[in-house]
């Protein structure tokens, strides 16, 4: 009987150990799930890139040379250069006040869609300034409802957005990114992120709540520079809980924020890669942080200016192609300087449609 009792206890202990092990394993899996899914996404994106490359290499033109056309999967259209803020490092400055007529902008977007565009990001300048946000709203609506793009996003400083805009256009917008470099108003003022007595952080929080109410995924973009590099933003970012926190290393672009012709002079804002890494290390527990060093950032974006010309940044300045409205996407994109491999490597392709994000609103 004693022996039977010991055997039973031994079996129970073993069962207990097995259950604990399974529990720990499950916990570890849950903890790592986010990380693993991000890695898988990147792996899928890179494989997709390799397949596109392989297909391209099989296509040869009549003279036997290889055709290596770039697909404009994700495009950033800076339709205005005008802005109400004066950020000292701004790298898309108000060098012109030109904005295309709405129908011309739509024609260009249709050409991009035909060339393979899946995601459009509207940016500036401040995109909500043109016709009090109506121009932007119409483009957002057109891209979602007519072109049926998987993802439509906007980058804004957040100061001119109204609830009425969300009511009219929110359902067609997947992601709204608000630029915020500091949670200390004095630092924002020092940087130039602000206008008059308006409080940038209060605006940010107001817009964040509207995003929740009108079901738009919320993102934050921060440029790390000499004035915010020592700041600890962990608490505020956790509280705001954006779907993505893009953290850029301040970048110099000749003719925009550096050099004689430039409207801004950001030399005093620049930080070293080591300092940038220090900032990233301080925020390494934030899961949604997406870092972008100068190297990752410079050529991995397809940028269209207000005339719908691709801007080539490979020489450290923005050299424009001809407009896609005049020569078509395929001809213009050859002069974009776009590094497609780096685009996939930096995780440029991610879950960018709000329908796929499974967000709790
Ligand atoms: S808010 Fe953006 S576009 Fe406006 S000045 Fe600042 S960086 Fe430039």
TrEMBL record:
* Signal peptide residue numbers: none
Q: What is its main location?
A: endoplasmic reticulum
Entry GO terms, CC: endoplasmic reticulum membrane; lipid droplet; mitochondrion
Q: Do you know which CDD domains this protein is assigned to? A: Radical_SAM
Q: Kindly give the membrane topology term recorded for this protein.
A: Peripheral membrane protein
For this protein, the record's NCBIfam families field holds: viperin (TIGR04278), viperin_w_prok (NF038283)
Assigned protein family:
Belongs to the radical SAM superfamily. RSAD2 family.
Q: What is this protein called?
A: S-adenosylmethionine-dependent nucleotide dehydratase RSAD2
| Species assigned in the record | Chiloscyllium punctatum
> What does the organism's lineage look like at the top?
Eukaryota, Metazoa, Chordata, Craniata, Vertebrata
